[in-house]
Amino acid sequence: MQPPKYYLLFIVLIFANCTPKTVQKIPNSDGIQIENPVVLLPETEEEPYQILPEITLQPKNQVIASLKTTPCYGKCPVYEIKFLASQYVTWRGHANTSRIGFYEARMDGKMLEEITKRAESLGLFDLEEMYPEQGEFLEDYPAVVTHIYSGEREKRIVNIYDAPDAVRIFEEYLIESTKKLTWNEIDEVD
Question: How far apart are CA 134 and CA 139, in angstroms?
Answer without folding.
Answer: 15
